Amino acid sequence: MGPAHRGRVAAGRGFASDRMALEPVHQGLQALAGGIGMVPGTLNLLLDLPFVGFLPFYVTEADLGVTVWTDHAPARKGLSIGRALIAGRYRGLILRGDEPDYPANQVEIACEVRLREHLGLADGDRLDFRLVDSFR
């Protein structure tokens, strides 16, 4: 398990819920998560420091076979993705866009549960995650 990354929950633009509900996207993320289904939507986390972790997977819209982000992030070619343990107990994926203006300290978290509900999170609340190779 990697070192802890910590940050504050931030409001997003709301694009991920609809896009992650698309069957090819849902199936692709589930495959990367080792068969674990991810709840549609992501939680934006603004880290205390720029993100320097290694995200071993890279996915393009061509890989998914469907338009996911070109309408709102036209400079993005793909997403880097890695597995993570969030708040010490929830399995999820860390996602980062590769567009030039993607904030160095931002990650998006896809998870097996709705983190805002399960942890009672509001914008500004602190959250941590650790990158993992697999979920055991």
TrEMBL record:
Entry-linked InterPro entries: Riboflavin_kinase_CTP-dep (IPR023602), Riboflavin_kinase_dom_sf (IPR023465)
MF terms (GO), sorted A to Z: nucleotide binding; riboflavin kinase activity
Keyword Transferase appears in the UniProt entry: yes
The entry's keywords: Flavoprotein, FMN, Nucleotide-binding, Transferase
GO BP terms, alphabetized: riboflavin biosynthetic process
Gene3D superfamilies: Riboflavin kinase-like (2.40.30.30)
Domain Riboflavin kinase: 36-128
Protein name: Riboflavin kinase domain-containing protein
